[in-house]
Amino acid sequence: MQAFKKLTSTAVPLPIEDVDTDQIIPARFLKATTREGFGDNLFRDWRYNADGTPKADFVLNNPVYQGDILVAGRNFGCGSSREHAAWALTDYGFRVVVSSFFADIFRGNSLNNGLLPVQVSEDFLHQIFTAAEKNPNAKFTVDLAAQTFTIEDTDAVFEFEIDSYKKMCMMNGYDDIDYLLSVKDEIEAFEQRQVGVF
Amino acid sequence: MTLFDKIWNAHVVKQIDGGTDVLYIDRHFIHEVTSPQAFNGLTKRGISVFRKNKTVATADHNVPTENQHLPIADPLGRIQVDTLTQNCADFDLDLYGLGHKYQGIVHVIGPELGITQPGRTFVCGDSHTSTHGAFGAIAFGIGTSQVEQVLATQCVLQRRPKTMRITVDGELGKGVGAKDIILYIIAKLTAAGGTGYFVEYAGSAIRGLSMEGRMTVCNMSIEMGARGGLIAPDQTTFDYIKGRKFAPQGADFDKAVEYWKTLPTDADATFDKEYTFDAADIEPMLTYGTNPGMGIKISEKVPLPSDLNNAASFDKSLAYMGFEKGESLLGKKVNYVFIGSCTNSRIEDLRAVAEFVKGKKKAENVNVMVVPGSQQVRLQAQEEGLDKIFTAAGFDFREPGCSACLGMNADKVPKGEYCVSTSNRNFEGRQGPGARTILAGPLMAAATALTGEITDVRTLLS
Ligand code: SF4
């Protein structure tokens, strides 16, 4: 997993609520057996017409908006547990997703793939949308060590929360599995204690 | 202590910095879509599966629902199913694959095989794993990285969720069932109302449900954002499990029941949040929008957005569905009906539909697909002659799988068409690009099949 420490970038605004993982990557594109290549079909049905031509009114097709940060409305990533959603976002090039609220499974999947979910207040989310809409070149800084998200144009800062263990993993590029493998003895000891109960 | 706390506490291997727990998983279900990358990970690390007898595999999401005895026509689908078969052979795991008498939707086969038992922890790379909570178990969906973790260590890292209790007391009205209860709850709490929580469903209306009805309720917990839902085990639970293939047998069963009886929430336990609803207030429900929280009673009209912050998303949703604020959905022409999915594809669902449509014919304009949840359900339906009732009514009775619930295989709803569906998600494009899904219970779906338009099932009940 790629480590994440600090990033300054422009942002791509997607002011829609309840974006579910079926929109992020529709089920019919889940047929691959590897983690790569899902970025091409990120937001497929919002991004392309049935004949494969791009929809001009979708933000990813608007050359004015570029960057490593996706900013979306509340309850981002609800629905299916497909980790392909996180893979599609990272494969496309996003490193950070900002919303006022994330669905649980999506948040966990993102953290396991080096995609940082930054949860901000509803009010701060609107400040970000406003800044990005006013000036598509507006820069934003995400500092994981300090746990801050800064709107550079206005100097507005939001301190976001993250689990201390997850923060350590993101900053060092560690996977949960490395940790779990390191405590295997304790898992076996637990099993011994549980014999006969389950 | 709550039911949830008792089970969770019994499965914490250790707690790590910041309040994350290493949680032991008793049983792990896998399927073809979310597992291949996990096996790749094991291979890359050069490790094997830690506890082989605790993982069970089936092929469901991407299988055809006709001619299952033939090679899968879709090449990508075939590769995925073949990859699962190969991985299960390489890593020595039990597989109920295509053609096996136990094959079916993962959340249907776990309970019917008696693998799902009270007090256990379950995970699967699928968000509707919450279904298994109906037995008084902790069950939740995970991503593929976590599938790999469970294969490698039989554990996941998880923050302890908050607890919520939803009590539904009273008698359900005529034509109202488990699906209506859960659609009603989600409509009240919204699609994000349960995020961060594990939900215990309680009250006389819940206790009065069969195991299959309880599964329907727990199944959709994820649709209000809750990671899982659970219901206290009782005699209904024990009777259901008894005698099933992987259930404890003889004296072991009695011992297990003794343990299961200790699980229900203690009278003095408290929850982080509580809601109470009156069963008498619930009607046949259906959705009008593009998330499961956008539901109404059949007698109600499409509402106005609940707060102005989400007005744009609300309008986008209605535009997709082709509905207007303030209109009733009664009488809307519907050309597709789907009866199936891990929410409503069990034998009781099929029996209810068959009883309702027996001797009748579907409306001319409608295509009706009935997809049983498993090979065992299909066989049972045939033994009871339900298949003949469906065929006589003009319904298409198919082979088991997820089918039009997620439109990964060939079973899709065409662009712009309405489908009254007993599945669990009405997201844009869920049943095929441009498809418009209206979620409802099996009886409402059957009523629509007969009339070809959205109908209040109660008007057709004698
Ligand atoms: S039936 Fe639908 S919701 Fe259930 S497991 Fe299959 S795809 Fe998921």
Provide a concise account of the structure shown.
The complex is a heterodimer of chains A (198) and B (462). With 198 residues, chain A is α/β, with parallel strands linked by helices.
Overall pLDDT metric of chain B: 96
Helix count, DSSP H or I runs of 4 or more residues of chain B: 15
**Biggest β-sheet: strands ordered side by side in the sheet of chain A:** 1-6-7-8
Radius of gyration of chain A: 18 Å
- By oligomeric state, this entry counts as heterodimer
How many extended strands of chain A?
A: 8
Present the secondary structure layout.
The complex is a heterodimer of chains A (198) and B (462).
Chain A: E1 6-9, E2 11-14, H1 21-24, H2 44-47, E3 69-72, H3 84-92, E4 96-99, H4 104-111, E5 116-119, H5 122-134, E6 140-143, E7 148-151, E8 156-159, H6 164-172, H7 176-182, H8 184-194
Parallel strand pairs in A: 2-3, 3-4, 4-5
Antiparallel strand pairs in A: 1-6, 6-7, 7-8
Chain B: H1 3-9, E1 12-16, E2 20-24, E3 27-30, H2 36-45, E4 55-58, H3 75-90, E5 94-96, H4 106-112, E6 121-124, E7 138-141, H5 144-153, E8 155-159, E9 162-169, H6 178-189, E10 197-202, H7 204-207, H8 211-219, E11 228-230, H9 235-241, H10 250-260, E12 273-278, E13 285-287, E14 295-297, H11 311-321, E15 336-339, H12 347-357, E16 367-370, H13 375-383, H14 386-393, E17 396-397, E18 418-421, E19 436-439, H15 442-451
Parallel strand pairs in B: 3-4, 3-6, 4-5, 6-7, 9-10, 9-12, 10-11, 15-16, 15-18, 16-17, 18-19
Antiparallel strand pairs in B: 1-2, 2-8, 13-14
Iron/sulfur cluster binds at residues 60-61, 105, 107, 126, 128, 341-342, 402, 405-406, 423-424 of chain B.
